[in-house]
Each structure stands twice: as C-alpha cells, then as structure tokens.
Specification:
The protein has 194 residues and is of the alpha/beta class. The chain has seven helices and seven strands, in the order βαβαββαββαβααα.
C-alpha cells in the first residue's frame, strides 16, 4: 500500500509516524478561504477533501490523507495567529471559555473513493492572567497553531478540562478517526505496520 500525507505539517507527520506505516508527504496548494456562510465543520471537511484531491494527479497510486483544522470561539472561526500579539489576543479571548476544535479528515483511494468525517474536540480554558499568557506565548511560540497553544507541550497548563475521543485532534490528525476510516476502506492499519 502506498500512502501519502497531503500536508507539510511536522505535527501531522509525527502523528502519522506512530502508525508505523511507510508514507510520503507533499503539500497541496489550495485556497483555504472560507466560503460565505460556511459552517466550521463543512469548512474543514471541504479543505481536507480538496487537499487530498489536489495531489491525486501527481500520486495516482497512493491512498491520500487530507486533514484540516479550525477552532471556534463564541461562534467565530479562529485561525492560526502567525504573530505573538494575535496569539496573546486569542488566548485572552479564550480565558475562562470553551473552545471547540473541528478537524476535517479525508482518506482518498487511488480509484477516487473518499472516506471523510469531521472530528470535534473541546478544551475548557481556565481563567488566565495576562502575565501567564504573555509568558506562555514567549516560551512556546504557538504561532502556527490554531487556538494559539500546543496541547502536547506546556499548553496543557492552560486548561481546566478537555472533551473528545482523541487528543491528537488538537495536534491536527485524529488518529482514532483515521484508523477508523482506513478500516472502512478495507485497510487494517495494524496489519500494514512494519
């Protein structure tokens, strides 16, 4: 089985490595602008599918994994901050709030069949002091992370609790859901591992 991760994300690569299935990586070039009126769940599933489709022509014999993530705070989609000030703004707005992450996932077969879903995961931020937020952002630099934190690192200290079936969703690749999609497609990930 040939497998391709349609992502340039080091975080997603590290997660997929855990399955011990050899895979290739390539970054798709797609427009990630939300459509007018598009719900967060629709948005991430659409992008996951578009990422997988964008590379299908270059990798016709591969099973392709597309994934995309966004977070929603107060019914508003929040993207990656890209700057320290925006990360501080996002974390300040998240203080004492529930933030829901939606990860769209698509597994595309070489024949063009698509298996896809949206995996939700919620985090409940504890009330945060401005000094804590600034110190956290300076230390961990979560500028390329939706929600402005790294749950696999010091970001875990920002939360009161988490809800969802797979914490890997926060990192960008819900592994339980991925192995579920693989089994739906007739691929047993345990038997593919080396």
């Amino acid at each position: 089985m040939k497998l391709l991760l349609a992502s340039g994300s080091a975080y997603r690569r590290a997660l997929l490595n855990r399955l011990r299935i050899p895979f290739d990586c390539a970054s798709p070039d797609i427009d990630e602008t939300p459509h007018p009126g598009e719900e967060a769940q629709q948005y991430v599933v659409r992008l996951a599918r578009e990422k997988a489709r964008a590379l299908a022509g270059d990798y016709p014999h591969h099973w392709i994994i597309g994934s995309d993530q966004t977070c929603v705070l107060n019914n508003r989609i929040c993207g990656k901050p890209h700057t320290e000030e925006k990360a501080i703004e996002q974390l300040s707005a998240s203080s004492g709030q529930q933030v829901t992450f939606y990860t769209g996932l698509c597994l595309r077969s070489p024949q063009g069949e698509e298996y896809f879903l949206c995996e939700p995961f919620s985090v409940y931020f504890r009330p945060l002091q401005e000094e804590e937020i600034r110190h956290y952002v300076a230390l961990e630099q979560p500028l390329d992370c939706a929600g402005s934190f790294k749950a696999e690192g010091l970001g875990i200290s920002l939360f009161e609790k988490m809800e969802g079936r797979d914490m890997n969703s926060l990192i960008g690749l819900p592994m339980i859901a991925l192995t579920e999609l693989m089994r739906q497609a007739g691929i047993n990930p345990l038997l593919q591992a080396t």
